[in-house]
Design a protein that fits this description.
Radius of gyration: 21 Å
CATH class: Mainly Alpha
CATH topology: Glycosyltransferase
Largest sheet: 3 strands, antiparallel
Number of domains: 1
Shape: globular
Strand content: under 5%
Number of helices: 19
Order of helices and strands: HHEHHEHEHHHHHHHHEEHEEHHHHH
Distance between the termini: 46 Å
Structural class: mainly alpha
Length: 506
Amino acid sequence: MENKCKQKKLLHCFYVLPLFFVFSNAGAFDYGEALTKSLLYFEAQRSGRLPYNQRVPWRDHSGLTDGLEQGADLVGGYYDAGDHVKFGLPMAFTVTMLSWGVIEYGKEMASAGELEHALEAIKWGTDYFIKAHTNPNVLWAEVGDGDTDHYCWQRPEDMTTSRQAYKIDVNNPGSDLAGETAAALAAASIVFRETNPHYSHILLHHAQQVFEFGDKYRGNYDRSVGVVKSYYASVSGYMDELLWGAIWLYKATDREEYINYVINKAHIFGGTGWAITEFSWDVKYAGIQIIASKLLSEAKHKEHKGILEEYRSKAEFYICSCLNKNNGTNIARTNGGLLFTRQWNNMQYVSSASFLLTVYSDFLANSNQNLSCPRGNAAPEELFALAKSQVDYILGLNPKTISYLVGYGLKYPTKVHHRGASIVSYRERKGFIGCTQGYDEWYGHNEPNPNILIGALVGGPDQDDEFLDDRGNYVQTEACTYNTAPLVGVLAKLNQLDGLHLIGSY
């Protein structure tokens, strides 16, 4: 049975591509098309009652009784990958990254005509989190069971697997899940502040309550929700998520209590102690450190300069390791130039690194600074060049000349490990397809999936740039929402620069 794209360990990093390679293919990709398709993917992952403007025609309503047995309305949200479990931690990280992308590059999304779709993708997640937060000290963590789900190969519309729901509460804490959910809600409240102020206020209210709950009743959520351990175990613990939630609440509220939390707990929670070479659904330190670094440019934070400088030092360790400019600890890369963290679903680390590199490049450029690494300085352009090279690799500039963003380009994975995409659409064949029937008729056959999972970023190639397009090769062909989410903002920026003919001179 599959172990999923969630399996992971900690702390790895990458190398930088030569600049001549990065820019030799400038203008070859339609980043606007890639942006459009990346946002379309989230509609394919929707659970619940689909809206009238649903753009993915092969999906229909599903999970309409979620939470019913527990007396809660848990209809909605996202399936994380190719299965039908709704895992709270990666879902929240997905929404946080989509929101951060809009905060940084919303104007670029608007100019591409995609901002509304980005807002819809965020709101589909936050609407669910509001439902899942049924009490100030209760947050529903998961709907469905990964183990029983993986015995079935069904369309979500036919789902017969367990929809048991699991929660965290005072007696069963989950500070990591609460912290990430608070971050998602707080970041989204910033996104909707101008266009939907009432909704923004509701999001912020829930964010503050969820954070307070997670901070007061501390513990790892995978100890309270044991069924998640094989899929989304909290390897990094909960301290990074509490710092993550606090810094997003500070950005959303400008309240001193949250910046004081980030400053006062910097050492004991590892924010200024961990030098990290990974940013993911589990490990948030690099993201925290980069946001904290950006606060240094604001005069009102002078009193916190010392601690913020420590955060910045660790942020730059991450960036330098991506650029291969640390002494000793750097992230590996393939011969084709792909940042390579680990075999299982490596593209999640590539997209998140590309986003952080882009954000930090902008920060350095806007403050007229260069990056100082142990093995040499780097101008902002070099950071962005690396980010662009990774996106270009994803879109087809790689030894296999295949686009790992499904549906983009002439050649892309056609046998994605995804139940809904691999079985004929419910709209075409309404007859029930059972667990084993799905495996017998659809999982094992060699034909391309009948439905294209447009915008999905699959796990990608191995350390030798090799890739096998096979439904059973879930290590490489399964896609997850948090793979695509960080890519959205970077694609928006690349599209804008491409439109201005500034890609090669940025």
